[in-house]
Amino acid sequence: MVLLCIVIFPLIFSLSLSLHEWNIIRAGGWQWKGLGNYATILFQDPYFRTSLKVTIFYLLGTVPLQLALGLVVALILNRITRKIIGFLRTTLVIPAIMTPIVVGIIWRLMYNPDLGMLNYLLGLFHLPPVNWTGMPQTALPSVMMADTWEWTPFMALILLAGLQALPREPFEAAYVDGATNWQTFRFVTLPLLSPVLIVAILIRLMDSFKTFDLIFVLTQGGPGMSTETMNFYTYRYGFKFFHMGYASALSWLLVIIVTIISMILVKIIRSRGIYAMGG
Amino acid sequence: MQYSTIKTAKKIVLTLATVIIFFLILFPPIILFLTSIKTEVDALSFPPKWIFKPILGNYRDIFKTSSLARYMLNSLIVASVNTAVSLALGSMAAYGLARFRFKGSENLSFWILSIRMMPPVASIIPIYIIMKKMHLLDTPWALVIIYLTFNLPFVVWMMKGFFEDIPREIEESALIDGCSEFEVFRKMAIPLVAPGLAATAILIFIFSWNEFLFALILTGTRAVTLPVGIIGFMKETGINWGYMTAGGILALVPVIIFTVLVQKHLVKGLTLGAIK
Lengths: 279, 276
Description:
The complex is a heterodimer.
Chain A: H1 2-17, E1 20-21, E2 31-32, H2 36-44, H3 46-79, H4 85-97, H5 100-111, H6 117-124, H7 136-164, H8 169-176, H9 181-209, H10 213-218, H11 230-239, H12 244-271, H13 275-278
Antiparallel strand pairs in A: 1-2
Helix pairs in contact in A: 3-7, 3-9, 3-11, 4-7, 7-9, 9-12, 11-12
Chain B: H1 2-36, H2 40-43, H3 57-65, H4 68-99, H5 108-117, H6 120-133, H7 140-164, H8 168-176, H9 181-192, H10 194-210, H11 213-218, H12 226-231, E1 234-235, E2 238-239, H13 241-261, H14 263-270
Antiparallel strand pairs in B: 1-2
C-alpha cells in the first residue's frame, strides 16, 4: 500500500505538473497552461521531432541487429560441447550485468580519437582515424555500437537457453525427411524459437527506450543533438533548463509511446499463449 | 574419409568462431583493466603500449586524493539497506501470493512488467520534487526508498516462483503439528528457498549498485554513489584516465564476483522468469 503511494502519487503529481509552466530556479509559482505544453511539444518543438527521430533510429538500429547477431552467436554456441556451458553463460552475461556507466567509460576509452584502441586498429590497416563520438554523422552509430556490444551477448544467452530447451523430435523428423540445414533452420528452429524471440525483443525494446547511462558518458546527447533520444531530451529539459512543467509533459508522452508499443507486444505474446511473460 | 574431413573442418570453424566471439566480448574490459594499471605516460601513449611496467599507483592515489572510499561506502549502504528491506518485505508478500488466492493477485505480473517498462526519466521529476520537500535530497535514504520501487516487485516476482516450487504437503504437516502460518513461513519455507533467496539478494544488490540516473539527480555531494562519483573524474578540463579506469574496475569487482556466484539464477532473473 505504501509502495502504491510511492508509485501512484508521483504520477498524479507529474500529470498536474505537465499542465503547468514551472521553472524551479525562477521565482513565481505554477502557471496554468492547460494542454499548452503538449501542443507546443507536438506541433512547434523541432527538437522534440529530432529526438523522436533519433529514438526511432536507435531502436530500429540496435534491437534487430542485436537479435540477428545474438541468434548467430547462440546457434554457434549451441553446437559447442556442453562441458564449458557454465563458463560460456557467465561470460555472455558479463557485459549486461556490468555497471552501465563503466561500459560507457570502456567505450569512451576505445573511441578516444587520439589514443583509442579503435583508431589504432584502423591504423594497422592503413585506414584514416575516425573522430567516433565527435562528429554528428558517426556519434549515433558509435553509441549504437557500444549498445550492441553490451546487449548482444545477453540476447545470445536468452536465445541459447531457448535453443537448448527445444524438443529433439522435430529435428530428427526433419533430418529423416532429408531437410537441408537451411530448411531445418527456417521451418523448424525459427518457428519453435519464436516465443523466446518475441520475449527477447520485448525486453530489449523496453530497455532500449531507457538508454541513458551510455549516452550520458559517451556524448551527452551531442554533438549538436545527434544522439539526443527522447529520454535524454526530457532529462535535459528538466535538469539542465529546469522547465519542470514542460519536461513532465515530455515524460508523459514518452510513457504513452512506451506503453502503446509494449501493449502491442504483450498482446502478441498473449495471443501466442506464452505464459511466463504476460501472466 | 571425406566425410570426416568435412566434420573436422566444421569443428575448426566453430571453435574459431567461438574464440572470436569471446575475444570480442572480453577485449574491451581487458583494455579497461590494462589502462588502469598503466602510468599516465603509458596510458596516453599512442600507439598503445602492450608491454609496460604495471603499477598500482592509480588504485592507491584514487583512495588518497579523492572521496572514492566515501562513494563506495555510500553505494554499499544504499545497496545493502535496500536489499535487506526488499527481501524482508518482498519475501513475505511473495509467500502470501504463492499460498493464498485473492482478488487482483494476477495483476502482479503486469505491475512488474510496467515498472520495468517505465523509463526512469519519466518519473524522476516528481520524485525529485517530493524528495526535496521531504528534505531527503542528498541522503542515502532517498535512494533506498526509490530503489524499492523497482527492487521490491522484482523480489516478489522471483520469490513467488521459488515458494510455488515447495510442495504444499510439507507445510500442511507442520500446520497440523500446531505451527502458525507465520512459523511455517519462518522455520520451513525460508530455509527451503534459501538458495533462491540468496540469488535474488545478489541480483537486487547489483541493480542498486549499478543504478545511475536516480543517484545522479537525487544526490549532490554527501550521498554520492560510486557510478556518479566515477563520472566526476570526467571534467571539462580533461579526463583523468587513470582514476576513471581504476574506479571503473573497482565498481566491477563485486559485480563480477557475484555474477559468478549466482550464474544459474541470473538468466531467469534478468528475463523476469521468461527463460528458466
